[in-house]
Amino acid sequence: MAKKTLVSGVKPTGRIHIGNYFGAMRQFVALQDSYHAMIFIADYHALTTERNPKTLREQTIAIAMDYLAIGLNPEKTLLFKQSDVPEVVELAWIFNCITTMPYLSRAHAYKDALAKDKEVNVGLFDYPMLMAADILIQDADAVPVGQDQKQHVEITRDTAEKFNRIYGDMFTLPEHLILSETETVPGIDGKKMSKSYGNIIPLFASDDEIEQSVMSIVTDSKGVGEPKNTEGDTLFSYHRLFSTGELPEIERRYREGGIGYKESKEMLIKNMRAFIAPLRERREDIAKDTARVTAILEKGGERARERARKKMSFIRERVGLS
Ligand code: ADP
Ligand code: TRP
User: Fold this and answer.
1) Which of 2, 43, 146, 212 could hold 23 in an S-S bridge, CB 3.0 to 4.6 Å?
2) Which ligand is nearest to the CA of 17?
3) How many domains does the chain have?
4) How far apart are CA 69 and CA 175, in angstroms?
5) Does ligand 1 have an atom closer than 6 angstroms to the CB of 193?
6) Could you list the residue range(s) of the whole structural domain that residue 20 is in?
């Protein structure tokens, strides 16, 4: 049987963090054998917030290096830059013309930006249509993401259905793939970890950064002997991600009392360092050969574009543009 297609992307808007990894990116690696995987760097989407061309270029290549360092294999996964497939912008325009403003006004990202008094440019408002185009133009069956992107995948399905209803069957309805136990990794302040909130632990952090981040995790003021919560506790949620054999023991000591936050943080630092060091070293190696990384993106971009062009010619025909 032909493999199903998987599509996902990450915006090049800052350093990748453990939330990106445990929520979304580790799925890319785990699924690259069983799916026809297409993973991209969402540079068009980054333009909604990033206006420095040099920074955008640097962050784009940095994410490509991150993808390789976590274990994406370019022989198995098509790695590319979103802007190497400009057909998605054309498709997003067509979607704009069948989608209403009131419908898009319900999107969380837009409502959030309004609530926080951030600039709402038209690109930000229209963000879900471009994302729908990324997914639908490649006939994706599955979209591995974190919880915050679930609504965007639902909008993608709605848009596919609407197009199919108006113009006849054209698009596959994709499913989101969300890992329930790590769907929203908290940041060191307890809110959702995000590149834009300044509360991250970088996935490729140095030993010093790991220590600084862990020491800044916000805890309550319970003493060593007091029983502590495991549910809803940021520090403990990181133990779940990084501890090897000792999790049941840590959990017991939390519940019964007998572990202080200082000791808990020290254990976490040790385990995080052990987990991150090999990833960071692999990334350092990959970063020595930028030309290789650029070549991988170029080749992936051509192949992704080829697929998109074919699909786009059917779509143009169907809507009356050819
Ligand atoms: P950020 O919010 O840090 O800018 P992105 O929007 O680029 O991250 O998200 C890239 C991927 O990582 C998406 O699939 C998103 O759902 C996932 N992700 C981001 N933050 C988290 C988090 N704190 N927990 C789980 N998944 C996350
Ligand atoms: N919106 C996603 C994010 O903020 C990035 C993204 C753009 C994406 N296009 C996509 C994710 C298509 C999955 C599929 O993280």
Assistant:
1) 146
2) 1
3) 2
4) 27
5) yes
6) 4-184+290-319
To test the pocket of ligand 2, the residue of 5, 7, 8, 66 to mutate (highest count of ligand atoms within 8 Å of its CB) is 8
Residue closest via CA to ligand 2's atom 7 equals: 131
Binned at pLDDT 50, 70 and 90, residue 183 comes out as very high
Residues 6+ away with beta carbon under 8 Å from 67: 25, 28, 39, 41, 77, 79
Per-residue pLDDT reduced to its tens digit, 13-64 = 999 999 999 999 999 999 999 999 999 999 999 999 999 999 999 999 999 9
176 C-beta closer than 6 A to ligand 1: no
Residue 195 falls inside a structural domain: no
Q: How close is the Cα of 167 to the center of ligand 2, in Å?
A: 26
Tens of pLDDT, residues 127-140: 999 999 999 999 99
Nearest to 73 by CA among 296, 298, 299: 296
Query: Based on the domain organization, do 47 and 126 belong to the same domain?
Result: yes
The rounded distance, in Å, linking the Cα atoms of 199 and 186 is: 9
pLDDT tens-digit series, residues 68-103? 999 999 999 999 999 999 999 999 999 999 999 999
Q: Decide whether any atom of ligand 2 lies within 6 Å of the 42 Cβ.
A: yes
**CB–CB of 160/172 below 8 Å?**
yes
Helices 53-69, 290-319: axis angle to 10 degrees equals 100
> Would 26 be classed as within a structural domain?
yes
Q: Are both 72 and 180 inside the same structural domain?
A: yes
User: Is the CB of residue 66 below 6 angstroms from any atom belonging to ligand 1?
Assistant: no
> 190 lies in a domain?
no
